[in-house]
Amino acid sequence: VQLVESGGDLVQPGGSLRLSCAASGFPFSSYGMSWYRQAPGKERELVAGISSDGGSPYYADSAKGRFTISRDNAKNTVSLQMNSLKPEDTAVYYCNVRRRGLSYWGQGTQVTVSS
């Protein structure tokens, strides 16, 4: 299993970013995918999740109304569109899949929201 995140950047408050995760090494279309984030000094937290067929998205309260998770099973990618970004969204964002009792992570992509 390999997960490679991209799209992180420095953005001003109120701005937008789109994160992408390229997945390989497993039957992508058969698994739900998630985005987590970890801010300095804090525990890693679930931000959003999406089922294998793209339905039933889940959002943490902090993400509702601002973030949208989506996936492209033809391209083996899952994305996170983030709008109206706030300084408290600053974190390393990770793509995640759970398969056969194991949890797999990418290397993460840094999102910094600051003026």
Task: Please specify the SSE layout and strand pairing.
Layout: E1 2-6, E2 10-11, E3 17-24, E4 33-38, E5 45-50, E6 58-59, E7 67-72, E8 77-82, E9 91-99, E10 102-105, E11 109-113
Parallel strand pairs: 2-11
Antiparallel strand pairs: 1-3, 3-8, 4-5, 4-9, 5-6, 7-8, 9-10, 9-11
Top keywords for this entry?
115 residues, mainly beta, four-stranded antiparallel beta sheet, 11 strands
In what range is the share of β-strand residues? over 45%
User: Total number of β-strand segments?
Assistant: 11
How would you spell out the order of helices and strands? EEEEEEEEEEE
Total of helices: 0
Gyration radius, in Å: 13 Å
Largest sheet: 7 strands, mixed
- End-to-end separation in angstroms reads 37 Å
Spans of at least 5 consecutive residues with low confidence: none
Task: Characterise this structure.
- The protein has 115 residues and is an all-beta fold.
- 0% of the residues lie in helices and 51% in strands.
- The protein has no helices and 11 strands.
- The strands form 2 sheets. Strands 2, 4, 5, 6, 9, 10 and 11 form a 7-stranded mixed sheet that branches. Strands 1-3-8-7 form a 4-stranded antiparallel sheet, with no helix packed on it.
- β7 (67-72) and β8 (77-82) form a beta hairpin.
- The model has no long low-confidence stretch (mean pLDDT 97).
